[in-house]
Amino acid sequence: AFHPTNPNILASCSDDKTIKIWNISTGKRTLTLRGHSKRVMSVAWGPSGKQIASGSWDHKIKVWNTQSGDCEATLAGHSERVTSVVWSPNGKHIASGSWDNTAKIWLTDTFECQLTLIGHSDFVRDIAFHPTNPNILASCSDDKTIKIWNISTGKRTLTLRGHSKRVMSVAWGPSGKQIASGSWDHKIKVWNTQSGDCEATLAGHSERVTSVVWSPNGKHIASGSWDNTAKIWLTDTFECQLTLIGHSDFVRDIAFHPTNP
Fold first, then answer.
1. pTM of the predicted model, to two decimals?
2. pLDDT by residue (tens digit) across 141-154?
């Protein structure tokens, strides 16, 4: 994950149980964060860039000070592996998704669990806050659905159905009016978050889709797949503009540059 304001700073997490902070202008590692007892699956910067959250198979979320490297808090509450963590745009909440079939909302001032979102019937794979409304969260699951939640009320506002296999990744468009999802059914779907309608199904990968992301300017969706490729899709026509070939094995994750779409 890139730093929210400094495009030269990158965070990575690993099965080696650590989080590392890198300066990509020098290529040097500036910090290694140790404390998780199992593999670290997800990492997310706080909006200020002074903190980072990590989620691990040890069932815990940790919040780190990126200046000192100290662990400021350990958030315990999930009963299974944590697969995804994300910080709300206003910095007031951290959301986490887990193999216990729930997402949890944590307050960043007290690090207490404010809310447990119950509704999925299988593992929660990915979560994402709305780009402009910090009260709206999306989650996706092995139960083949995407759910939209209002965390101010704790209620589910929408369930999006259409994938035929587990949904691994979810990403909001910059306007917040659309959401993209990637599934093991080899497809990406684009949804209208007002009506719940599926606006497009993007077919082209020959294997499972593991990751989807929207470009900062909203003009492209990128997808990564077990077919060893990434694809770039136009959001005005939903056509595949480009297939990126070069990896010799599964593409696990993808990310647009924070300032250059």
1. 0.92
2. 999 999 999 999 99
